[in-house]
Amino acid sequence: MVEDFIMFVGAAVLAPFLLLKLATAFAPFEDEENVTDVLLVIAHPDDEAMFFAPTLAHYASKSKVEIRVLCLSTGNGDGMGETRRTELLRSCFGAFGIRARNVTIIDDPLLLDGQSQKWSPVQICKHLEKVMNRAFSCRPSGHLRIITFDSGGVSGHPNHIDTFDAVTSHICPFACITSMKIDCFALRTVGLAFKYFGPASALLHWFCFSSISSMRILTPDIGICSRAMSAHASQLLWYRRIFTRMASYAYFNELQSVVRVPGAHRQNNEGAGARCARNVLSTSSLLVFYFAVKTGWISIAAHGVFLAILSGACW
Fold it and tell me: Which has fewest Cβ within 10 Å: 58, 95, 240, 261?
């Protein structure tokens, strides 16, 4: 009786959030139909395949959208820069139909691939502005959407984080001197608890834990990440093969609109407190479920999962 009462109260309190989630789950994102150009800014060859495949596939399906890729290094940390350059071009064209003329690969001594390398924001902005000017010269009155990593770097790689910092600091100054509409979206870093459960983690994260104000892309082509990554033969080690099948990024991308504020950066739809609460909730739910099943309390485990899903709708 007590358990049933708790379930009833929980459902009654959280049902409005669940209904709101359902109402927005399939709604088109604002301004999506007006986008004419997309610029993906990545740090290394293979980032486009491992993390952004659903996003690139989504925009590649739109005939009026011109896709450009700016890769800020050749990935020469292991001395295979030229090989990886060729692999990136092959991946972009083979998986997404992006021609070589729209792929810019930077070989800059101030932007060297490596966990210990600190990238110069000035250098990144210099290269970024050249590519943005190219898009502006083609369609001066178009709508340019820039997509990159978020402040967590998706995988926590320092080069990814430096890319986010530089890109978001440069958008506003450039937007002030051009007639082209520009916005910027960052790929949201997925918590470890829901990162490696394949399509199931993508669906759970999309439905339960993604923000209702973010742009959510769930690709119908479940093999797109594997096909894109197959072009990167030099990087296709066993753990990356697993990644292309089990990581949620292979099936789902959540893109958050980025707002730049003086002296700091934030994403406009979620603060650090909300992110922390969501991660604690998801991890705690998994732990409770595990111990409940382990001790034979199946009923409690089922109730815990149900409440976790409902509470996840709040975010």
Answer: 261
Does position 147 have pLDDT exceeding 90, yes or no?
A: yes
For the domain that residue 233 is a member of, what is the CATH number? Answer: 3.40.50.10320
Higher-pLDDT residue of 181, 292: 181
Specify whether 145 is located in the same domain as 262.
yes
Does residue 14 sit in the same domain as residue 102? Answer: no
Q: From CA 223, how far away is CA 285, in angstroms rounded?
A: 30
Residue with more model confidence, 167 or 213: 167
Pair 309, 209 in one domain: no
Domain ranges, residue 10: 1-27+271-315
Residues 8, 88, single domain; the answer is: no
Q: What type of residue is 91? A: S
Shared domain for 199 and 297, answered yes or no, is: no
Least confident residue range of 36-45, 63-72, 113-122, 300-309: 300-309
265 and 310 belong to one structural domain:
no
**Same domain as 2, residue 51:** no
Q: Which of 198, 173, 200, 172 is nearest to 184 (CA)?
A: 172
- The amino acid at 47: D
Q: What is the pLDDT of residue 272?
A: 45
138 and 57 co-located in one domain: yes
What average pLDDT score do residues 36-45 get?
A: 96
The predicted structure's pLDDT at residue 265? 39
Q: Which range, of 134-143, 210-219, 237-246, averages the lowest pLDDT?
A: 210-219
